[in-house]
Amino acid sequence: xxxxxxxxxxxxxxxxxxxxxxxxxxxxxxxxxxxxxxxxxxxxxxxxxxxxxxxxxxxxxxxxxxxxxxxxxxxxxxxxxxxxxxxxxxxxxxxxxxxxxxxxxxxxxxxxxxxxxxxxxxxxxxxxxxxxxxxxxxxxxxxxxxxxxxxxxxxxxxxxxxxxxxxxxxxxxxxxxxxxxxxxxxxxxxxxxxxxxxxxxxxxxxxxxxxxxxxxxxxxxxxxxxxxxxxxxxxxxxxxxxxxxxxxxxxxxxxxxxxxxxxxxxxxxxxxxxxxxxxxxxxxxxxxxxxxxxxxxxxxxxxxxx
Length: 306
Hints:
Strand order of the largest sheet: 1-2
Structural class: mainly alpha
Largest sheet: 2 strands, antiparallel
CATH superfamily: MetI-like
Order of helices and strands: HHEHEHHHHHHHHHHHH
CATH class: Mainly Alpha
Helix content: over 70%
Radius of gyration: 25 Å
Oligomer: single chain
CATH architecture: Orthogonal Bundle
Number of helices: 15
Number of domains: 1
Number of strands: 2
């Protein structure tokens, strides 16, 4: 009887080994990320400039650094510009990636291999190399894009400077970021589509389902978890974009009108020596990332509970 009563108690006891195995990973994470985040939070409440870099003690600034994010028209414009740029690029990337994934699922043989190799090559291209190629393509004097546009009759693009105005600047930036991000989305969604049973698709066709119905009522619900995670990752990555914008700005673009959050943080810290303000904007980006990620994390928790 004692054995019978004690067995369920032992079964309900949670194993300790998995938690012990997690300790090294958690410790490394806290060591690698905990202190930098702590330093950023502390610095964001201080007046920390060039003098503090040489040993002078910082002074407490309270919420002044955070207040400037919303009171300064330039800073507020950067925030709005970054959010719009992030959401637009993430949406375009996921839509194009989904279309490429559907293409890879529809084609066979050497065509599929060529598409997959092209995706891998675009994904593996270094950022500097990709931006350099696009700068050559959109160069106002010898760029291929202006040459082709003039050839088809659009003479107004003769010598057009794509990077000189914000709208055309962000058009080029979007092309670069989407071109470099689509392979990850396409390959991830294609991996999800390969898990769909072909017999299920054939049964739907026999029942008279159209291609559109198969896409929206069978394929999309089955790959929805993958679609959600790649959309979330794209929003996070596009919100923190820096290198592409910085390299395009070096080609002569108006910096104040094309700055995004990452570039604004760099300008505050390195150009203006306002490390307190840069730290405040960094913490703001962290909080904004958490806010944008919260809906997906909440849906994951609900699915796990159900």
